[in-house]
Design brief:
The structure holds two protein chains of two kinds. By secondary structure, chain A is of the alpha/beta class. Chain A is 43% helix and 12% strand. Chain A contains ten helices and seven strands. In chain B, the strands form three sheets. In chain B, strands 3-2-4-5-7-6-12 form a seven-stranded mixed β-sheet, with helices on both faces. A five-stranded mixed β-sheet of chain B has the order 9-11-10-13-14, sandwiched between helices. A two-stranded antiparallel ribbon of chain B has the order 1-8. Classes of the chains: A alpha/beta, B alpha/beta.
Chain lengths: 278, 313
Amino acid sequence: MTNLELQKTANAVRKSIVTAVYSAKSGHPGGSLSAADIFTWLYFEEMHIDPKNPKLEDRDRFVLSKGHVAPGLYSVLAERGFFPKEDLTTLRHTGSYLQGHPDMKHIPGVDMSGGSLGQGLSAAVGMAAAGKFDNKDYRVYALTGDGEIQEGQIWEAAMWAGHRKLDNLVVIVDNNNLQIDGEIDKVCSPYPIDKKFEAFNFHTIVIDGNDFDQIRAAFKEARETKGQPTAIIAKTIKGKGVSFMENQAGWHGKAPGDEEYRIAMEELEKAGEALCQK
Amino acid sequence: MSEVKKIATRDSYGNSLAELGREHENLIVLDADLAGATKTGIFQKEFPDRHWDCGIAECNMTGIAAGLSTCGKVPFISSFAMFAAGRNYEQVRNSIGYPHLNVKIGATHAGISVGEDGATHQCLEDMALMREIPGMVVINPSDDVEAKAAVKAAYEHEGPVYLRFGRLAVPVINDNPDYRFEIGKGITLREGRDVTIFATGLEVSYAVDAANLLAADGIDAEVINIHTIKPLDEELVTASAAKTGKVVTVEEHFIAGGLGSAVAEVLCEKAPTKLLRIGVNDCFGESGPANELIHKYELDAEGIYKKVKAFCG
């Protein structure tokens, strides 16, 4: 896909995110929107997957370690055709298969259940190790939050992944700099993130995670990196694409009201139209 | 009297893994720097590339196992019960239990029979923790024969299984041709009319000895080995309770949350029966040789005998 096509797709994913969270009347729009470009890249360019066969044996795997941004994952899965887009409005509703956090048992395309922060990366490491053991070519991707890496288990997983030289593993840190209680460096700074992963024997790449040129180049570099896992520190804008949500910690886990939803969708519609003019 | 053969069930675990490893190439053993103690070293010696040491990082080991199981492997994660169930509780619940993944948890060094290491390492609540997780099978084998059978059954069972093993060498009591292990099925070792003793793990052997002491006093005790705490053999529990009218549970575990609680729950709902729970009662353990601690905490045959006799009196 061209960058323009990716941007259009990401814009559609953002609209789905806002709509899903609005329908749920709760959920996590901020981190879903910051990672929307990464989600789009992974599911439309990077990963070897088949929406018709979600359990394809040799597929690439994705683990959403920061499971609360399930609206982002579900929106891109629906956009890619794993399940109908209209189901997104059932997010978090009683009886819906679209649980508040990813549920691999019931959601097509979800490779791991999760949402308890710090745990997903370990599962991704297990998948990558299984791939190496079986001499398979599939690759494993895990998305963590930048607040999430305050959890010690992330570093247990990173230590073992580096130790085992799992070069089929890519960790993407969605570095939007905000967590529930505020700026991550004010709450409990994980910086420098790249140096930390380097110390755990990762190859590290720091990019603007809302720029498809940089995303494209980073994943290419990760693929070419042998003998060690890669960590992509994706500097992003929390709430990206909805002006009043951007860089606001308050939009970490809050749904828009009627008027806010109308404004958000209008902005995204306009952004989509602008992309169509290009 | 002939010498009774004694084997620690942690040894049975290591030996059984090696046996299963020969048959099943998808079996991967994970350990957290305790391969010598958990006896997974036996497997490691034979299958070094299928024994993955995760270092002292049990939570990560648990997550790795979850990931492995989604790729068709059958991982056995191994550590002391304190860490496998205690430190790991939420990882087991959310990364294994919630997605109902095919991961087996081999927890050694359970209970006060850990001995000299003392209270920080004597897990007396692991069965309580694991039993609460939906879909989790909890097995506490009584001897070498049963432990090996349990490991094999755990491999064959589709879904998460918690296996509880001990450090202390215990008598081999199930070495007979009629012995048959089935998950969720208790085993009647001695029939009786006056009282039923439901025992689990290393307490089974003590319960049998206690029943012999009680017999000398004219108390005819039925002894039932409950190796599977979950799913509990409710049919056998209620039938025996109805038969004898008095029930005693014996476990090397807190009396809250483990076998005693499981039996109490069933009896209260389905067959109210007078009940005595024997175990460790709301206190931490301490350092000392395992056999001395078992005696001190009245979990040996003599302790059980005294308590059951008073209960029946």
